[in-house]
């Protein structure tokens, strides 16, 4: 979703599994540079004995719709289906017998930033009006994607060939294009280090970066994009893009659910951090609510502030899932039990034990969460975005959550952390 949540948004996954287990305190075979995974006992997890696990098991069953097809997961997922969630002792036994915890350490630290996100509710209409002037865009017809490798990204020039609808692939061994081919210069693109894609558009025989937020907001490119709805509030629309999905209450009484479809290729830049760096907000006030209050005090600077973040999210209509919005894993998120993670370090779909605190307090918040989403601002092994659910109360918690926390991977016994 975010990520979907955008603090969200963006979006690859992988899982490598094998039967060997790394010695305590040593990096797992093939562990990402600077990150190690240390096997520990459940007794070493803070507050494990007091954690509520029934809803965690429900969320895990959603993940198992994907995980059960991966090597080493069939047994754990099959066993999950047979556990009575009303029997707390049985649920605890299931986790302890089926999984092994792995402490995540990055650059010598076992803690990182835990933020929050939610599914917002906006008011809108299917038609533009003085009350609803702000468009929620689908994917522009001229937005194209080129798949490149890290080595190809380092080259001065690439030749691209069509590889499907609005998709292009590198033609190896060529520096000049033939008819129907394009030239791309990777250095022109603001590349997200987590993805091997260039997001762009066609300009003659060149593949060039897509428009940044300021130009899109001024109408560039989106003349070829469907407008899914028109909404009342520009600030709420901006945060809909940050969250990655939401619901729009339309004036005909119907509800439209929208989710992340594509993004313009620019990395997410925090407008809260921008205001802090300029001395216009304190770090304590750089929450969603604090930013909204700043905009109310400075309405003429709203567009200037939004354009600090060049990233722009395009949406698609979502059907009713019967639960939360769909995360990057492709399953509905569970309120309070799903997190967005950086899939370079935490395999998408897996359970993780989270040790953090409730927003703006020192009160412990400890539970098994499911890594079911990703987000543009979620970078790092001990970095997570906590999904609070739908509506105003969820938004209150999400907007104020900037806590320190630690993560432990819970992997089926015999399965190693990611390579």
UniProtKB/TrEMBL annotation:
Matches recorded under SUPFAM superfamilies: Barwin-like endoglucanases
EC number: 4.2.2.n1
SMART domains named among the record's database cross-references: MltA (SM00925)
InterPro entries in UniProt: 3D_dom, MltA, MltA_B, RlpA-like_sf
Protein species of origin: Crenobacter intestini
GO biological process: cell wall organization; peptidoglycan catabolic process; peptidoglycan turnover
Gene3D superfamilies: Barwin-like endoglucanases, RlpA-like domain, transglycosylase MltA
This protein's name: peptidoglycan lytic exotransglycosylase
Domain of life: Bacteria
């Amino acid at each position: 979703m975010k990520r979907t949540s955008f603090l969200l948004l963006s979006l690859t996954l992988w899982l490598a599994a094998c039967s060997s287990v790394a010695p305590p305190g040593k990096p797992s075979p093939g562990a990402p540079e600077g990150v190690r995974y240390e096997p520990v006992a459940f007794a070493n997890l803070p507050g494990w004995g007091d954690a509520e696990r029934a809803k965690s098991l429900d969320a895990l069953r959603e993940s198992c719709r994907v995980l059960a097809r991966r090597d080493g997961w069939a047994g754990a997922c099959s066993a999950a289906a047979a556990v009575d969630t009303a029997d707390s002792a049985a649920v605890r036994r299931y986790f302890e017998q089926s999984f092994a915890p792995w402490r995540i350490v990055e650059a010598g630290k076992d803690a990182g930033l835990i933020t929050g996100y939610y599914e917002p509710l906006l008011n809108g209409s299917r038609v533009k009006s003085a009350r609803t002037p702000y468009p929620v865009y689908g994917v522009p017809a001229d937005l194209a994607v080129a798949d490149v490798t890290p080595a190809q990204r380092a080259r001065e020039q690439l030749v691209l060939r069509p590889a499907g609808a609005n998709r292009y692939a590198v033609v190896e061994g060529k520096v000049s294009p033939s008819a129907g081919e394009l030239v791309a210069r990777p250095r022109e693109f603001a590349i997200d280090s987590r993805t091997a894609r260039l997001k762009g558009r066609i300009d003659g025989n060149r593949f060039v970066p897509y428009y940044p937020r300021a130009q899109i907001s001024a109408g560039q490119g989106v003349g070829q994009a469907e407008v899914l709805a028109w909404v009342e509030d520009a600030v709420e629309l901006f945060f809909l893009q940050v969250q990655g999905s939401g619901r729009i209450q339309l004036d005909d009484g119907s509800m439209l659910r929208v989710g992340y479809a594509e993004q313009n290729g620019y990395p997410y830049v925090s407008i809260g951090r921008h205001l802090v760096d300029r001395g216009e907000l304190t770090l304590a006030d750089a929450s969603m609510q604090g930013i909204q209050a700043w905009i109310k005090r400075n309405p003429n600077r709203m567009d200037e502030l939004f354009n600090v973040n060049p990233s722009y999210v395009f949406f698609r209509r979502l059907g009713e899932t019967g639960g939360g919005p769909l995360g990057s894993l492709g399953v509905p998120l569970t309120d309070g039990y799903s997190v967005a993670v950086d899939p370079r370090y935490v395999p998408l779909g897996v359970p993780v034990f989270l040790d953090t605190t409730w927003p703006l307090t020192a009160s412990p918040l400890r539970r098994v969460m499911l890594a079911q989403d990703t987000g543009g601002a979620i970078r790092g092994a001990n970095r997570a975005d906590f999904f609070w659910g739908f509506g105003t109360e969820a938004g209150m918690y999400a907007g104020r959550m900037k806590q320190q926390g630690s993560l432990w991977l819970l992997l089926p016994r015999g399965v190693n952390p990611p390579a």
